[in-house]
Amino acid sequence: MNFQQVTFPYTGPYLLVRTNQGRFIIDFDNKQLVWSQSVKENAANEDWNKHSRHLAYTLSNNLFVTTNDGKTIQVTNEPEGIVCGQSVHRNEFGIEKGTFWSPSGKLLAFYRMDETMVTDYPQVNTATRIATLEPQKYPMAGMTSHKVTVGIFNPASGTTIYLQAGDPTDRYFTNISWTPDEKKIFVIELNRDQNHAEIVRYDAATGIREDLVYEERHDKYVEPQHPLEFLPWDNKTCVYQSRKDGYNHLYLLNTATNEMKQLTHGEWEVQELIGFNSSAKEILILSTETSPLQSNVFAVETKTGATHLLGYEGGTHQVNLCSNGKYLIDSYVSHSIPHNIDVLSSNHKRQKPVNLFAAENPYKDYAMPEISVGTLKAADGMTDLYYRLVKPLNFNPNKKYPAIIYVYGGPHAQMIKDRMNYGISGWDIYMAQEGYVMLTVDSRGSANRGLAFENVIFRQLGVEEMKDQMKGVDFLRELGFVDMNRLGIHGWSYGGFMTTNLMLTHNDVFKVAVAGGPVIDWSYYEVMYGERYMDTPQQNPDGYKNADLKQKAGRLKGRLDIVIGGNDPTCVPQHSISFLRSCIDAGTHPDFFVYPGDGHNMRGLDRVHLYEHVTRYFMEHLN
Amino acid sequence: MNFQQVTFPYTGPYLLVRTNQGRFIIDFDNKQLVWSQSVKENAANEDWNKHSRHLAYTLSNNLFVTTNDGKTIQVTNEPEGIVCGQSVHRNEFGIEKGTFWSPSGKLLAFYRMDETMVTDYPQVNTATRIATLEPQKYPMAGMTSHKVTVGIFNPASGTTIYLQAGDPTDRYFTNISWTPDEKKIFVIELNRDQNHAEIVRYDAATGIREDLVYEERHDKYVEPQHPLEFLPWDNKTCVYQSRKDGYNHLYLLNTATNEMKQLTHGEWEVQELIGFNSSAKEILILSTETSPLQSNVFAVETKTGATHLLGYEGGTHQVNLCSNGKYLIDSYVSHSIPHNIDVLSSNHKRQKPVNLFAAENPYKDYAMPEISVGTLKAADGMTDLYYRLVKPLNFNPNKKYPAIIYVYGGPHAQMIKDRMNYGISGWDIYMAQEGYVMLTVDSRGSANRGLAFENVIFRQLGVEEMKDQMKGVDFLRELGFVDMNRLGIHGWSYGGFMTTNLMLTHNDVFKVAVAGGPVIDWSYYEVMYGERYMDTPQQNPDGYKNADLKQKAGRLKGRLDIVIGGNDPTCVPQHSISFLRSCIDAGTHPDFFVYPGDGHNMRGLDRVHLYEHVTRYFMEHLN
Question: B332-347 burial string, b = 16+ CB within 10 Å, else e?
Answer without folding.
Answer: bbbbebbbbebebbbb
